[in-house]
Design goal:
The protein is of the alpha+beta class. Helices cover 33% and strands 33% of the residues. The protein has two domains: 1-31; 33-160, OB fold (Dihydrolipoamide Acetyltransferase, E2P), CATH 2.40.50. The protein contains four helices and seven strands. A five-stranded mixed β-barrel has the order 3-4-5-7-6.
């Protein structure tokens, strides 16, 4: 009798482990295709809002895994995407080593991005040139006296959702 109960427990344990593996397999299928040289650990992903809150406090390059919604994609080669920033705008994510996404990638699709965020600056002269191109006067452009600091995100891995 003890052997029978023990056998049933072992069989039950084996089936439950098998079911857990099937769920994990299904989760991978739900995630869809992966791109880039680095495998993305989606369990480490933070929201775009969390990313901005954390990155504002940083000085140098920082590694992140972000969950975000793709709102635009490079129409010529799939070499960058725009991610919804939560403020009716988007930020650009470029791809390390020039990997690309399929041009038919769905917009408004959630994806997971692993990569590095850095602060970058736009020099005063470049800002003045852009102001002139936008139609501002020389006097208006001359009022630009400080560089503009922006961030850049370079992804080395992306996982799309289905």
């Amino acid at each position: 009798m003890k052997k029978l109960i023990l056998s049933l427990l072992v069989v039950n344990l084996l089936f439950s482990c098998s079911e857990q593996n099937q769920v994990k397999e299904e989760e991978k299928i739900e995630l869809g295709e992966a791109y880039g040289p680095v495998e993305v650990d989606v369990t480490k992903a933070i929201s775009v809002e969390e990313f901005f809150r954390d990155f504002e406090q940083k000085d140098g390059p920082e590694e992140y895994t972000i969950e975000g919604k793709i709102v635009t994609i490079c129409a010529k080669a799939g070499c960058w995407v725009g991610i919804d920033d939560g403020n009716d705008d988007y930020f650009m994510v470029r791809f390390k080593d020039h990997f690309t996404l399929p041009l038919d990638t769905k917009l408004d699709q959630t994806a997971y991005f692993h990569g590095v965020a850095i602060w970058d600056s736009i020099p005063v002269e470049k800002l003045r040139e852009e102001a002139m191109i936008e139609g501002k006067t020389k006097e208006e452009a001359a009022q630009i006296t400080e560089p503009k600091y922006i961030f850049s995100f370079e992804a080395d891995g992306i996982v799309l959702t289905k």
